[in-house]
Amino acid sequence: SYQNITSDELNGMLKNKDFVFVNVHIPFAGNIANTDLSIPYDQINIPENLSQLPDDKNAKIVLYCRSGRMSAIAAEVLVSQGYTNIWDLAGGMVDWEAAGFGLEK
Questions:
Q1: Is 14 helix (H, G, I), strand (E, B) or coil?
Q2: Could you count the other beta carbons within 10 Å of the beta carbon of residue 8?
Q3: Is the peptide bond before 47 cis (omega within 30 degrees of 0)?
Q4: Does the pLDDT of residue 64 top 90, yes or no?
């Protein structure tokens, strides 16, 4: 399974970033600063997209989208692919902005 995190928790994690940060939202609606990859949630399990992720299935990966729905789907796909350290931003960019944090357009 995967772990849900709040915007405040993510903001703290970004200060000492030790994870791959992936925006899975389509269409593009902006990024949270320090995003590493943009991979459409419905294409995350395509081999060329999986190859962008760490080979280590225990690597920490944090996913987000606009509202949290697409990233939850992507999180379940990655867990089914054997990834063990998946984190999902609950409420996505909507919650991130509501918490007072900005986006890069």
A1: helix
A2: 13
A3: no
A4: yes
Closest CA to 70 of 35, 22, 102: 22
Amino acid at 98: A
Compute how many other C-beta atoms are within 10 angstroms of the C-beta atom of residue 29. 15
Burial of 105 (0-12, 13-18, 19+ CB in 10 A): exposed
pLDDT > 90? residue 105: no
Q: Which two tokens stand for residue 72?
A: 């939850």
Q: List Cβ neighbours of 95 (8 Å cut-off, separation of 6 or more).
A: 6, 7, 68, 89
The H or E element spanning position 35 is none
Distance CA 99, CA 57 (A): 31
pLDDT score of 75: 98
